[in-house]
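Q: I have 92 residues here and want to know how they pack in 3D. Can you give me a structure?
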Amino acid sequence: MAVYVDDERMPYRRMLMCHMLADTTEELLEMADKIGVQRRWLQHSGTPKEHFDICLSKRAKALQHGALDADRAKVVEIIRTKRERAAGGQDE
């Protein structure tokens, strides 16, 4: 199980943002707590697309805490796997 961050660099106000997602909700929330991201910013909670948008400085912190760098193909793979698990009735 793991937490992943992409390198999307989407502009938002004065920041560049990327996505942080994980194999499980628990891992995602644990990492958010470690890097100082408020849980209320969780998007698509409880779905395979569950993630946080995080700024690049938080991305760097996540990587320091063990998150894995993920390209677009990896992000798609993670979401697809989570959808398949959900459809199969398996817990995340």
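Q: Anything worth noting?
A: The mean pLDDT is 93. The chain has one domain: 3-87.
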